[in-house]
Amino acid sequence: MSAPKQHPHFITSLQGELYDWRLWTARAVVLAFASMAGLTVVLFTWMCEFAFEHFRSVEREYWWSPLLWTPVLTAVIVWLTRRFAPGAAGSGIPQVMAALAPEVHAPVRHFFVSIWLTISKMVLTALGMLAGLSLGREGPSVQVGAGVMHSCRHWLPKRGVVSDHGLLIAGGAAGIAAAFNTPLGGIMFAIEELSRRPEQRSNGLIMAAIVLGGLMSVSVYGNSSYFGIVGAIRVDRLDLHMLWPGLLVTIACGLAGGLFARLLIVSLSGQSTDWFSRTRARFPVRFAALCGLLVAVIGVASNGSIFGSGFMHTRALLDGVDESFGLFFLLKFLATWITTWAGVPAGIFAPSLAIGGGIGSDMAQLLLGVSSTTLIAVGMAAFLAAVTQAPMTSFIIVMEMVDGHGLVLSLMAAALLASGISRLVSAPLYAALADLQVRRVVPAEPPRLT
Q: Phi/psi of residue 312, each to 5°?
């Protein structure tokens, strides 16, 4: 029978904490770079907003300008990406997940995260906003934050308390926390999407770095939600008379989100043999120009509502000043898929929220007498959960974004159900795309002869 464990001696433990300079140096460096990662994402946010405002000012003055400007700039972005920063293409989340894969070792990790990719991601995504493409900055913020955080390994003591994987998790999650102004959502993202090892999930220093990175956004923009000042947008509880409408929105978002994820996996894998996929493989820059033209046509047809992340349209839906029916959901779905297929650095978090909000708004208009803001919030959480298959992250982000604490259980249930439905339609999106990234640098093992 083993002897009972002894309680730690207070004085001895305190001396060990105070006199271990490596421990305190590591803590100081990690927290300093976490702050830097959060501020970098704040700068990235400003760059994207500045770029999109300039696009909107020209588009309002000359409605036809996207038909010329968007395809040209899309082609330029893809050429720059392929020529100088191929690791910056796409969302950024699969790259960080690929960098965390056990078969990806330190010498090749720079293909997925580095300071150069951080700078490239920021500039190229902002150019995508300037082009008016249907994309978000939240997914790219994960790669941006991870690149900044991972670079601090050069300043850590050799026998530090944080591994390279821990730095990547902290930086990626801090990026989400700062992008959405939701520190709790960043922690859940680290647990649900990025970390695969129990010790990574329970590291207090990593959690502190995530929260500190998220608080950098609060310090700059104030204690406001993603859609404005906390309390400005409130949603009602999902009572019994809202049960069936909420269930319909959840099922619709689960199916649509699963279809969206499957389209992205098939389109980006390069395994299809249709004309579009062959053209994308042979002439990627020309294909990008074609995609940019299609997005421009859809944008003009939608009176400009699908351009950008969809933030303003979602905010208008929540405020009750936009009651467009049916068309927005479908066109935003197509524009976001085409934008991602083009090969530009682009995130899908914010567009997914806009698509889900559009589904909820449409259902509220079909079923008279129900709260539109409640169904919009449910749709946002359900569609994001269906696309990412990360239900806990999705419901926490939406809850913090719209001050929806009264809907905690309802948002959680909608996210879980929509994610479950999506799994019947599609493989997990980010895991599948991360596997594609890993194959770029890790050759497949030849089949063994038996």
A: -65, -40
